Amino acid sequence: AAWEKQVRRSSTPRRPNGLSVLVTGAAGFVGSHCSLALKKRGDGVVGLDNFNDYYDPSLKRARQNLLKQQQVFIVEGDLNDAPLLSKLFYVAPFTHVLHLAAQAGVRYAMQNPQSYIRSNIAGFVNLLEIAKAANPQPAIVWASSSSVYGLNTENPFSEIDRTDKPASLYAATKKAGEEIAHTYNHIYGLSLTGLRFFTVYGPWGRPDMAYFFFTKDILQGKSIEIYKTHDQKEVARDFTYIDDVVKGCLGAVDTAEKSTGSGGKKKGPAQLRVYNLGNTSPVPVGRLVWILEGLLKTKAKKHVITMPRNGDVPFTHANVTLAHKDFGYKPTTDLATGLRKFVKWYVGYYGIQPRTQKESQPTEE
Ligand code: NAD
Ligand code: UGA
C-alpha cells in the first residue's frame, strides 16, 4: 500500500551505518526539531503523532509541512493503537525509538487528568509492549521531565536526587514512566534512556508555555501574571534552548546500546540510563519578561501574584555533568540569545507588523 511505501522510504537511512528512528510526537515542538536534525545527518526518520488539539493543531500541521519538505513522513495515529504500532514496526525495522509523544503541560493536568494517564502511562506501556516484541528490538530514548524533582529543595538537581515529591499529576506520570522503563529493561532486556528536559523553549515552540503566551499577550497589550512563591521569592526556571536539547537527544540516541532481548540472557543486562538535559542557569520569570519587553520594545502589563497551588514548582536547576561525561552534552545558548531567536520566528510566523519586527531584528544571523 501507499502508506507502507512511504513508511519504508522515510525510514531508510541515506548514509552508511545510518539509523532508522521512529520519532513519536514528531508534529510536536521537540519532536519536529529532532526529526529534522536526524534527517539532515542522513538517518531514516518516521514520525508518529495523533495531532490532538491540546494546543493549536494548525501549528502541528505547519511543523508537519516542514518535515514533509524534508521527506520525513508522519503517520497519523495514537500511541495506544497497538495494531497500528505493530504494523509500523513490521514494515520498518527501527533501530531506535525517540519517544517524545506525551500529554505535556503542568497546570492542564488539573483540568484533564485522564489525558495524562492515557498518553504518558497507557500509551508508553503500549509502545514498550510493541517494542519488546519487535525484531530487531529498538533502543528507546524517551522524554522524562525536570518536574520529577518536584518539591525537592536540593539545588542543583542531580540524577541521583530524590524524586518522591511530584507536585502535579503530570510530574507523577513522568515519574511513573521512569519506573515502568525500569521494569521493561529488567524483564525484556530493552535498552532505555530517559531524558529529563528542563523547560525547553525556542522557535516552533508550544503556545501553552509561559514565554510563548507572554509574547502574545505583551504584543496584544494584555496583562500577564508573574508568579512568586508563597515565601515571596521569585519563581525561577532553568530555561533550555531547543537546539541544545536536540543535541542532547541525538547524543543519547548515538550512545544508546542495543537491546539485549528477553531477560538480557544473551549479552548481560541491557542499558538503563537517565539524564538531565538542562541549561544549568536558572532565571527568574520576572527576568524572562524583562528580556521579552526589550526584544518586543513593549512594556508588559504585569501582575505579580502568589503562585496558585497548580502543580508548579518554585524552581528548577539542572546539574548536567552526567550527560556531559557520557555524550558531551554542553548547553551553549543563554536565555537572551534564545529568546531573540524565538521572537524572530514568532513575528515571522504570525506576520506581526513590520514596525515590531524591525525593532526586534536580531543583530546576528
Ligand atoms: P508537544 O505537545 O509539542 O509534543 C508532543 C506531541 O505528541 C504532540 O504533537 C501531540 O500531538 C503528540 N501526542 C500526544 N499524545 C499522543 C498520543 N497518545 N499518541 C500520539 N501522539 C501524541 O510537547 P513537547 O514540548 O515537544 O514535549 C515533548 C516531550 O518532552 C513530552 O514528552 C514532554 O512531556 C517532554 N518535556 C517537554 C518539556 C518542554 O519544556 N517542552 C520539558 C520537559 C519534558
Ligand atoms: C515546562 C513544560 O510545560 C512541561 O511540559 C515540562 O515538563 C516542564 O517544563 C519541565 O521542565 O519538566 P514549566 O516549567 O511550568 O513546564 O513551563 P511554563 O508553563 O512555560 O512556565 C514557566 C514558568 O513561568 C514557571 O515558573 C511558571 O510558574 C511561570 N508562570 C507560568 C508564570 O509566572 N505565570 C503564568 O501565567 C504561567
SSE topology sketch:
Layout (H helix, E strand, L loop, with lengths): L1 H10 L8 E5 L4 H12 L3 E6 L7 H13 L3 E4 L5 H10 L4 E4 L13 H21 L5 E7 L23 H20 L3 E6 L2 E2 L8 H10 L3 E6 L7 E2 L2 E2 H14 L16 E6 L5 E2 H12 L4 E6 L14 H7 L7 H15 L4 H6 L6
Parallel strand pairs: 1-2, 1-4, 2-3, 4-5, 5-6, 6-11, 7-10, 8-13
Antiparallel strand pairs: 9-12
Helix pairs in contact: 2-3, 2-8, 4-5, 5-6, 7-9, 9-11
The protein binds nicotinamide-adenine-dinucleotide (NAD) and uridine-5'-diphosphate-glucuronic acid (UGA).
Nicotinamide-adenine-dinucleotide (NAD) binds next to helix 2, strand 2, helix 5 and strand 5.
Labels describing this entry:
365 residues, alpha/beta, Rossmann fold, two-stranded parallel ribbon, 12 helices, 16% strand, disordered C terminus, binds uridine-5'-diphosphate-glucuronic acid
